[in-house]
């Protein structure tokens, strides 16, 4: 990675700082793994560091070492505000636009702290003093490893730090199957296992802790799947009533969208999930090959992400959202048939 970035980060960490680490809203495995990995590293260097999440994260990530120390802004807003107001350095991980952190956005916009961005999503904003942005990376966790390596601190990697980064890489690469997984990714993972990351334990705790209600919800989602062969597209819908029927908990729909891509001939998969409380339809997009769901989400659904994985939202009903989505497909027919 860029030596100037390493020098700049080292300059910040050469003196005691009050550090806040923040992932995006609705944090996933990479967001939680990268923030915990960085937190373990900074604590090992006697820095005063705290992780603040904009809102809660899934139960299947709460086994990770140090997760009990994370401050949830929605539950403890006064604590979070005080920490942000007093911070001298703020690390923002796994997002590159302050719009991704919900109610924390105005607090960060008014902060005088030095910002450090570590992220692998496309089209970053320029709010950070130090920007480590690389869309070619498998995950933000791999990037945190690169920072630690660049600082010459690989010996500082503890088993707790290692399992945090391993878990984030594992989840963001689809257990190492996505095209973003490189030979370098595997070398990083090998080093993390060498440092004490128990790979089987991470897999079991993330993927093998289903509840009966989650599996029933998956059955409902698959029953709702619509296949549009002409456009090599499959989409799933889940209404708020269906979520309520199956006792939905945060994280229960993680990975559901990927089932569409397991169908032969499908290159574009989407899931539409109604969120009545926020008044939106949450959308996840996945693709195979060269079809950019990042561009599709940015153009039509107030979102973005990566070429093959992106998110978005709609402010109209689920029926209107589906109608709009289907009306867009003809203009992408050639791309989807490529």
Commentary on this structure:
It comes from Arenibacter troitsensis. One of its GO terms (molecular function) is nucleic acid binding. It holds the Pfam family DHHA1. The protein has helices spanning 3-13, 29-44, 77-86, 105-109, 140-150, 159-172, 183-194, 199-207, 212-223, 240-245, 293-300, 318-328, 333-336; strands at 18-22, 48-53, 71-72, 89-93, 114-119, 130-133, 226-228, 233-238, 268-275, 280-287, 304-305, 309-314. It is α/β, with parallel strands linked by helices and 338 residues long. It has 2 domains: 3-207, inorganic pyrophosphatase (n-terminal core) (Alpha-Beta Complex), CATH 3.90.1640; 212-336, Diaminopimelate Epimerase, Chain A, domain 1 (Roll), CATH 3.10.310. A 6-stranded parallel sheet has the order 3-2-1-4-5-6, with helices on both faces. A 6-stranded mixed sheet has the order 7-8-9-10-12-11. The longest helix has 16 residues, at 29-44.
Question: Layout of SSEs?
Answer:
Elements: H1 3-13, E1 18-22, H2 29-44, E2 48-53, E3 71-72, H3 77-86, E4 89-93, H4 105-109, E5 114-119, E6 130-133, H5 140-150, H6 159-172, H7 183-194, H8 199-207, H9 212-223, E7 226-228, E8 233-238, H10 240-245, E9 268-275, E10 280-287, H11 293-300, E11 304-305, E12 309-314, H12 318-328, H13 333-336
Parallel strand pairs: 1-2, 1-4, 2-3, 4-5, 5-6, 8-9
Antiparallel strand pairs: 7-8, 9-10, 10-12, 11-12
Helix pairs in contact: 2-5, 2-6, 5-6, 6-7, 6-8
């Amino acid at each position: 990675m860029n030596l100037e970035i390493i020098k700049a980060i080292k300059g910040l960490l050469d003196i005691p700082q009050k550090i806040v680490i923040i992932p995006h809203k609705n944090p996933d495995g990479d967001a939680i793994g990268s923030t915990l990995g960085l937190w373990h590293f900074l604590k090992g260097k006697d820095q005063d560091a705290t992780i603040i999440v904009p809102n809660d994260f899934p139960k299947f990530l709460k086994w990770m070492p140090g997760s009990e120390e994370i401050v949830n802004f929605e539950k403890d807003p006064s604590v979070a505000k005080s920490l942000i107001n007093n911070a001298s350095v703020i690390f923002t991980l796994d997002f590159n636009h302050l719009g991704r952190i919900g109610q924390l956005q105005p607090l960060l916009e008014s902060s005088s702290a030095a910002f450090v961005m570590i992220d692998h999503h496309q089209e970053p904003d320029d709010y950070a003093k130090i920007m480590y942005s690389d869309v070619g990376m498998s995950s933000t966790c791999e990037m945190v490893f690169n920072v630690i390596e660049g600082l010459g601190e690989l010996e500082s990697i503890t088993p707790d730090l290692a399992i945090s980064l391993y878990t984030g890489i594992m989840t963001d690469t689809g257990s190492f199957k996505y095209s973003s997984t490189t030979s370098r990714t595997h070398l990083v993972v090998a080093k993390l296992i060498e440092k004490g990351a128990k790979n089987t334990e991470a897999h079991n705790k993330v993927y093998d802790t289903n509840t009966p209600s989650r599996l029933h919800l998956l059955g409902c989602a698959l029953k709702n799947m619509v296949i549009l062969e002409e456009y090599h597209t499959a989409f799933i819908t889940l209404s708020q009533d269906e979520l309520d029927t199956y006792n939905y908990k945060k994280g229960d729909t993680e990975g559901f969208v990927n089932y569409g891509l397991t169908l032969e001939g499908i290159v574009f998969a989407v899931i539409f999930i109604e969120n009545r409380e926020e008044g939106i339809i949450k959308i996840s997009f996945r693709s195979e090959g060269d079809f950019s769901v990042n561009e599709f989400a940015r153009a039509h659904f107030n979102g973005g992400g990566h070429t093959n994985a992106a998110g978005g939202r709609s402010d109209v009903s689920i029926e209107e959202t589906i109608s709009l989505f289907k009306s867009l497909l003809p203009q992408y027919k050639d791309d989807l048939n490529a």
